[in-house]
């Protein structure tokens, strides 16, 4: 069927993609389909959340990777002619999106943050120049492919009892590439992308030991500690998994507190969806104050002890 297809390689992100797919499918007056990797039990869940059809991919043997699905998806797209294929912006998703786009000789919009229908064209927005500008990409050829970063859309809510069709796709051809082994990357800390309060440590801290003040504030507020790239990449004071910004993670807390953070655009891109942005910096001209809802101009070594004391008093 024509329509908007979603490649499901991550259950929670697939629900976000279904929200995106449903919004543009309505504008194009078409349906939504999910390409699901062998997990038939989830098919009805996705139908309940907006899919009209589910394409089931067969399981892969242990020495093969999800990239092997690319020719099967491309062949199905040639036959059924979807308007667009949406893929989560994970490392695996980006790989398969690029492979499918190459096989179909069509366009791919990476890190798409929003989509709309203008006439007969599908228009996608993505950040460029480190988040300083938004690029609009209009697709004339079909299908249009896009990778969408996590949390760009709210998850789709189920409507139990929806009816949909399930179709099985053929097994992928034998690949000339063999996976010799897989080794997961060990995470050294928590995932702060879902934290409701984020206390971010910047280069204004003079010593690694002083980060204890940021951790104490985060604990008092029931939040998590993040950092800017210099703190993780240059000083190695915190793991890179805590780096917030264009080349790190994006956070959407109810409260963001930047301490000693200058506020360069590469970092601000990662906090653009925070509900309240606050900052402590001794430089009154620091860029962070241009995006902050509230801020304190002062030396963090003078401000933080007073803030910690006030928070402890408030907590009783």
From the structure above, extract its key features.
Rossmann fold, 2 domains, 316 residues, alpha/beta, elongated
Can you put this structure into words, describing what you see?
This protein is of the alpha/beta class and 316 residues long. The chain has 2 domains: 4-168, HUPs (Rossmann fold, 3-Layer(aba) Sandwich), CATH 3.40.50.620; 197-315, TPP-binding domain (Rossmann fold). It has helices spanning 11-28, 43-48, 70-80, 91-104, 211-221, 229-234, 265-268, 288-291, 300-315; strands at 4-8, 32-37, 53-57, 84-88, 108-109, 112-118, 121-128, 133-139, 144-148, 165-168, 197-201, 224-227, 255-259, 276-281, 294-297. Strands 5-9-4-1-2-3-10 form a 7-stranded parallel sheet, sandwiched between helices. The longest helix has 18 residues, at 11-28. It is elongated. The N and C termini lie far apart (62 Å). The relative contact order is 0.11.
